Automatic annotation (TrEMBL):
Matches recorded under InterPro entries: RGS, RGS_sf, RGS_subdomain_2
Residues that span the membrane, as ranges: none
Domain RGS: from-to ranges: 77-192
Annotated region (Disordered), positions in chain: 1-25
SMART domains for this protein: RGS (SM00315)
Gene3D superfamilies (alphabetical): Regulator of G-protein Signalling 4, domain 2
Full protein name: RGS domain-containing protein
PROSITE patterns noted in UniProt: RGS
Compositional bias (Polar residues): 1-12
Amino acid sequence: MGGGRSETSALSGTGGGRAMTTTQNSQRPNACCFCWNEEERRRRRRRLSQDTKMETIPNCEACTKPSMEEIRLWSQSFDKLMKNPAGRNVFREFLRTEYSEDNMLFWLACEDLKQEINKNAIEEKARSIYEDYISILSPKEVSLDARVREMINRKRQNPTPHVFEDAQLQIYTLMHRDSYPRFLSSSIYRSL
């Protein structure tokens, strides 16, 4: 989990590996219908910039506007929320308010790794995910138990697209049990 970290750490975007440097008045590219409206973004940036300087904000996933039925289904099933790009965007905005967006970014990075077939790319992505989210030296470290960490350390020498599968499941379960119930009662979800 975020552990009280601010959003100012450089986050690698998962949509094509792009990250964006922002200033107080710039807009996020690929803003979907569920990203904060412009006035809310400005207020939020002013509030955050009082304590820290925002350097980067990762891009939202490209998505289409979901129907009211889809939005309703998100409240019935965490799986349906996570399988829907617009749902992930909204949930990610919520996680950002709780300083635990790193959980979603890790999960998305693992999903991206699972699609990779090139051995060199697998090794590079696995190394990057380890350094960004698993290493105890990382400011974006996710909360994993010792058993899972030990398993990852053993598999790291010869990574496969599924090297982080146990860790990904643990973070998915954490988001489902911990953050999802709060998301459903949040103003972000209720405003939809």
